[in-house]
Amino acid sequence: MTTHTNTPQAPAKEPTGPATGLIGIPPHIGRALATGGGVLTIVSAFLAWTWTDAFPGDLTVYGYPGGLQVLVLIGGALTALFGLASYGIKGLRWLAPAGADSAIKFAALAAFATAWYTVIAIAVDLGGLANLEPGGWVAALATLVALLGALALPYERPAPDPIDPDDTGWEQFRHKVRHTGTVVKAAFASGTTKAPARTLPAYAEILVIVAALALGLTVFTYGIGTEYDELFIGFLITAGFGFAATAKAGLVDRVATLTGKHRNVTMIGAFAAAAAFPFTQSDDQYATIGVYILIFATVALGLNIVVGLAGLLDLGYVAFLGVGAYTAAMVSGSPSSPFDIHLPFWAAALLGAAVAMVFGVIIGAPTLRLRGDYLAIVTLGFGEIFRIAVLNADGTSGPDITNGSNGISSIPNLNIFGFDFGQEHTVAGFTIARFANYFLLMLLITLVVVIVFRRSGDSRIGRAWVAIREDETAALAMGINGFRVKLIAFALGAALAGLAGSVQAHVTYTVTPEQYQFAHVVPPNSAFLLAAVVLGGMGTISGPLVGAALLYLIPAKLQFLGDYQLLAFGLALVLLMRFRPEGLIPNRRRQLEFHEEAEAPTVLSKAGA
User: Fold this and answer.
1) Which one of 383, 482, 539, 564 has the minimum C-beta count within 10 Å?
2) Which has the higher per-residue pLDDT, 29 or 166?
3) Contact at 8 Å (CB) between 150 and 108?
4) d(CA 561, CA 243)
C-alpha cells in the first residue's frame, strides 16, 4: 500500500510591481536630494526670511531662528537624520528600526508644509512675495527639493486589479482612483522588517523613558504657549507629520515596548513631568488651561471605564460631573448654598463621589438591561433631565436648592492644612499662583483615577467588562452576571466623575446648569467627553488623557477662525476617524479589528493592550 503525503503549499504571493518611487528620479539620487535638502533646510532657518518685524516671530535676524523658523528647523533636522540613517551610518541605525524611507517622506512633508505655509503667510500678511528675504526663498527651495527626493525613494508598488471590460467609464475611473490611493498609501507605509532591538540594561531603558517623557513635556509646553495663530498652525503641522515620521521609523513602538516593560516607572515619570509643568510657566495663564485639561481628562478617563472597558454607550455622562460639582458646592460654605455647611475638602470630595455613585446606581439599575442605541437614548435623557432639574430648582418652578440658572456662586477657595489654594506660593524659588495650585491638586486626583482604572482593568471584574464588551451573549453563557458587572462599571465611572466635579466647583467659583449640556462649544460636555475617549483610544489609560488634551487645547487655539472654528475642528475629527479609527493610542486588540492586515501580537493582555 502506498501512502501519499500532501505537503501544504504556502499561498502564492500577490505579484507586485517593481520597487520604484512615486516620481521618476533614480532612488540613489532621490535619497541624496532628501538628505541634502534637509541639511539645507537647517541652514535656511539661520537666515533672515523677511525684512520687517511686522510678521509675528521676528524672522529678520541672521543666526538666530525664531517663531516658525524653529519648526522648519525641526522638520529639516528630522529629514536629515532619517536620511543619514537610511545610509546605514553607524550610530544612527537606531533611529529607524522599521526602515527610514517612510520616515523621510513624512519628515520632508513636515518641513515642506511648514516652510511653504510660512512663505504664503508672509506674502499674504505683508502684501506680496517681494517681502521675502533670501532665507525664505532658500527654505522654500530646500524643502521642495527634500520632498521631491523623498518621493523618489523606492517602495513595493502594489499590482493593479484587473479591470472588468464590461464596466462603464465611471466605474473604470473609480477603479483607477482607488488603485492610485492604494499606491500612495503603499508609498508611505512603514517597513515590515524591523531591526532587532538591542538589549539595554534596565537603567538605560529607564533613561530612554525619561527622555521620551521630557520630550513630551517640551512639546506640550511649546504647543500650549504658542503666542500667535500662525505659530500654532505651524506647530500642528510639524507635530503631526513629525509624530508620523517617528512612528513610521519604529521609534514609537520601541518606546511603547519599554513603557510596557516598566509600567510603574512610566506612570511615576509621567506624573512627575506633568507636575513640573506649572514651574515652566512665567505666569498663571497657561496653568489655567492646564487645570481645565486635567478636569476634562479625568472625567474622560472615568467615562473610559464605561465605554472603553464595559462597552456601554453613555451620552449623559457629564451629568455625573455636575452632581459632584453641585454636591461639593452646597457643602463648601458658599453663601448661595441653601445649606449652612462647610465641610473640609476631603469630606466634600468623598460626598460628591458618593452622591454621584448613588445617582449612577439609581439610573443604571432600571436601564442597564438595555443594550446599544436604547441604552444611549436613556442616558442622553438622564443628562437632559439633570440639567433641567437643577435649572428648575430655583424656588419658583421647584424647591429652592440650586438657585436655578444663577447656580451656586462664590464658592470659597480650598484651604488644606493651612495651604490656601487661592494665594500665590513660592516653592523652591518658583512662584505658583491660584490655578497652578489647583493644577497640582487635580493632578493628584487624576493619579487616583488612573490607579483605580488600572487596578480595576487588571482585576477579575475588569476581565468581565472586556468580555461583556466583546460579546455580551457569550459572556452571559459563560456564567458572567452581566447586569451586576455593568452596574459596577456605571457606578464606578459616576463616582470618578463626581470626584473630579468636586474640584471643578472650587476652580470655577460657580456651578451653573449650562456647564453640563450634551453638546456645547466649550468642554467638558457629554459629546466632547465621548469624542475624547474615541479619539484617544478606547480601553487605554493614556488615550483619553491625550484625546482630552487635544480636544480642549485645539478649540481654544482655533478661536481666530471665528464662526468657522467648529467646522475646521469637525473636519479634523472626520479625517482622523477616517484614517485612524482605532484612536491615537489604541490598544492592540482594537488596532487589529480595524487593520486586519496588521501583524498579530504575540501576547494580548486582559484589556487587549
Assistant:
1) 564
2) 29
3) yes
4) 25
Mean pLDDT (the chain) is 82
Q: What is the per-residue pLDDT for 596?
A: 54
| DSSP 8-state symbol, 306 | I
Are the CB atoms for 595 and 582 separated by under 8 Å? yes
DSSP letter, residue 156: E
Cell of 542: 493614556
What nine digits make up the cell of 536? 484617544
**Residue at grid coordinates 516593560:** 261
Distance CA 490, CA 505 (A): 22
* Residue partners of 328: CB distance under 8 A and separation at least 6: 348, 349, 351, 352, 501, 502, 503, 505, 506
Q: Which three cell numbers stand for residue 474?
A: 457569550
Does 12 have pLDDT greater than 90? no
Residue 454 has pLDDT above 70, yes or no: yes
Predicted TM-score (pTM) of the model is: 0.79
Contact 457, 606 (CB under 8 A): yes
The span from the CA of 176 to the CA of 189, in Å, is 20
Residues in the chain: 609
Please give the C-alpha separations between residue 471 and each of 32, 360, 482, 549, in angstroms, as whole numbers.
Answer: 53, 23, 11, 31
Distances (CA, A) of 428 to 271, 280, 425, 431, 432: 19, 13, 10, 8, 10
Nearest residue to 503 via CA among 407, 413, 582: 413
